[in-house]
Every structure is written in structure tokens, then in C-alpha cells.
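Researcher: Hi, I'm a grad student and pretty new to this. My advisor asked me to get structures for two proteins we've been looking at. I'm not sure of the right format, so I'll just paste the first sequence and hope you can take it from there.
Model: That works fine. Here's the first sequence with its C-alpha cells right after it:
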Amino acid sequence: MATKVTGIRSSYSGEVLEIPYSDKIILAVGEEVIFKDAEDKEEYGIVEFLNRDPIDAATISFTSKVLRKATANDIQKVDGNIDKAKVAMDKCKETISRMALDMAVFRTGYSFDGSSVHFMFTSEDRVDFRDLVKELARVLKKQIHLKQIGPRDKAKMVGGYGKCGRPLCCSTWLGKLESINMEMVRAQALENKGSSKLSGSCGKLLCCLKYEVESYRHLRKGLPRMGSLVVAKKSTALKPDEKLKVFAIDILNQRVKVSTENGEVHTLKVEEIEQLNSKK
């Protein structure tokens, strides 16, 4: 039987920790808790989900567990850490600017006991931040942790709204991020849409390009390729021996747009054409 897990978003790291589900403490989604993390330290977090399959079974933290529901004193302590984190964020940005490092810090979190500060940043390249860690440790008098993540992981953590007007899939229900590539774009005949229409808030290809790609691949099997030559069947008003060039494909409606040698444009159903170079 697969292990069910509870997901807790850590105030320190900002990430969701998946721990084995237990009903010893009755919890609800959105509840504030104190839990033991993978390093056996007490941390504060918010319950994201309960008693469900893990996003990634390989990353379940079997040594972690919920210790208690957060008390008023716990929450007061966390509120104080949030104010300190804002100061630490400003110090970090100032230091990055002074050192001319190519990185953008977007999140800072204090550990529950206040001994460590966790910074998350994005960058186009790998960054040598050893001197930055030393300087922050000197200024803040805390143990410093820096973590670089990609733009898709940042969008998943920060959240927002997609082109459809709904909350981002990655930050609500999607779970593990899967690879999206241009082959999926071409399979759906979307390569001419432009990068701005195909990119999400993270700047990468939209995750939703994967949702219908298998259906498009199935529907596209009987359609000619872009730029290929076809002839119209006798059931149409076109000359049956005239070569027509395919310049647009409507996969869902199973239609193609073709141009004649004289430049005339016609829309034909797939059953109204015969392919001349389908083997290519």
C-alpha cells in the first residue's frame, strides 16, 4: 500500500515538505503547525494537503512529523521572525548590488528558533555566492543558507494567474513539474503563435501544452504536413489533377487550407484530398 502524506509549507524554506500522514493530531488544510523537519529541528509551517498520494515518493521525509498545532506564543514568535526576514532581505539585496552578482533574491525566511536565515534566488547562470554568505553571516550574525531555483519552481512557489485567468496550475494542483518541449508545440500546430502566447508567467513553455498533446497526435495522423502537396478528389469543385499546396492545418476540425498554382485559397476537409508525398 502506497504511503499517504501530509504536505506542510515551511515558513523557513518556503518549500512543501511531505511527511507520512498520521491521524494522531487532527488537522485541517490551512492550519498552522509546529513540525520536526528532516534535520530534526522544530519549524513552523502551514498544512497544504492531507492524506493524499505524494508528489514525489522519493522525497518523502520519513523522519519528520507534526509535533503540535501552533500556539499563540508560537505564532507571535513567527511574526517577529517575519519582520526580521524583511530586514535580512534588504541587507542581502544591498550586498548583492555591491558585489555586482548576477542573481535576484525573491524570498527570505527565518528558522523557528531564529538561528538561521534561508534565502532563495534565481539566476541565468551558476553563481559563486561564497563571499556573499560570509558577508551576510557577518552582518546578520546568523547561519546563512542560499538556494538557487529555476523560474518554473519560482512561479510554483510565488503563485499568480495564467493567461486563462485562473490561478497557476503549478502552484495549485499540478504537483511535480514535467518537461515541456517544442515537439509538443509542433504536434498541436502552434509553432506560429509566437513565444509570448506560448510562454507562462515563468517565461517557459506553458504547462498546459502537455494536457491535450496526445489527442492532437491522434487527430493529426490522417492530416498532410505543412507545405506538402495534395490533390482534390472529384467530389469537390476543384480540378482533380491540380497540385495544391497545404499552408494551414485545422487539427480539431480535420480541415486544411490549400493554395492553387494561381494563388487561390480553399479550405477542404481531410476526406476531400489525396496526399501526393505522404511518405516524406
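Researcher: Oh nice, that was easy. Here's the second one.
Model: And its structure:
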Amino acid sequence: MTKEKTRCPWAPADNADYVRYHDEEWGVPSYDDAHLFEMLTLEGAQAGLSWSTILNKREGYRKAFAKFDPVKVSKFDEAKEAELLLDAGIVRHRGKVSSTISNAAALRAVQKEHGSFATYLWSFVDGKPVQNARKAMGEVPAKTEISAALSKDLLKRGFRFVGPTTMYAYMQAVGLVNDHLTSCFRYREVGGRLRKRS
């Protein structure tokens, strides 16, 4: 009999989608602009909804938004936007749909300025993941000074649905910070080091 792995409490063992997302993706440093755009969109879409709802619609989002190719999405017109608002495969919220299109254009501007969106994003943590050592979910903040700074700069650049709390969830998701609890088997796997007791 194999011992069940200890995970962060937000990933219940009886939810396969959550387990897969937690075990394989959440907290892993990402440097791929398409993936970073995807997660920016999904985190923004989650506002007011559960993450399970978003995970269930993830494939729908990939189909609707050209596999998150920012060049293609930035060229979506009003007719395409109207079509997307009828797509049951995504969250049919006018603001969230239109922001994904305008965010693609804003992301393209960042790419032109910095070479890639990843380069820009990682500059907020000096190029390497912040390794936290949280022991309980109650220790995990809703936002931080870094997420607030990132949010402020993104808003200045024309991005939407990028508030400080959403940006901290985003930073956790794409590995800018390691917020797996120290008891979680993934904590060390994504770079965390447990301090030895003196």
C-alpha cells in the first residue's frame, strides 16, 4: 500500500483536475509567453468564480483564443468578440472577453520593449523565484508589495483584470513565487529548501 502524497490543502485528492494542476504545473517557473498569457487570462477570468470552473473550461479557452497566441488574439475584431460571447466553452463575460483581446495587444507592446513578456515579468523578482516557507494556508497573503507593483505597472500599460490579488495568484501559478506549503511534496521539487532545525 503506497502512502498518499501530502499536498497543499487546496488540491483535494478526489479532484483529478486539481491534483494534476497542483502536481504538474502550479508553482513551476514558466518562461513561455503563450503560457504566461494563458495563465494571465485564466486568473483574470476566475474573478468571482471558482478555480475548478476555470480548469473545466481551459480547453475551451485554448480553442477560443488561438492557443493563446498573442499576435492572433490581438487581431480579433468586434465580430470575433461577439462570437466569443456566445461560446459556452469560456466564461461569457463581456469585460473578461474584451480584456483578453486588449491584453494581447498590451502584451505585444511589452514583447517589443523587453524582447519577451517573460523577461519583463521575471524582472519583478530579479530573475529567480521567491522561495517562501509557508507552513499553513493562513500564512499565505492575498497580495504582496511585488504583486501590487506588478499590478500597477500592468495597469499603466493598459492591461485589465490585473489587480494586486489576481497578480499574486498569477505569480504563484507561473512560479515567480513558490507558495507550496513546506509539508507539500512539491515544495522541494520546485526549489524550496527546508531549513535544518538547530
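Researcher: Is there anything I should tell my advisor about the second?
Model: You could mention this: Residues 130 and 177 are 4 Å apart (CA to CA).
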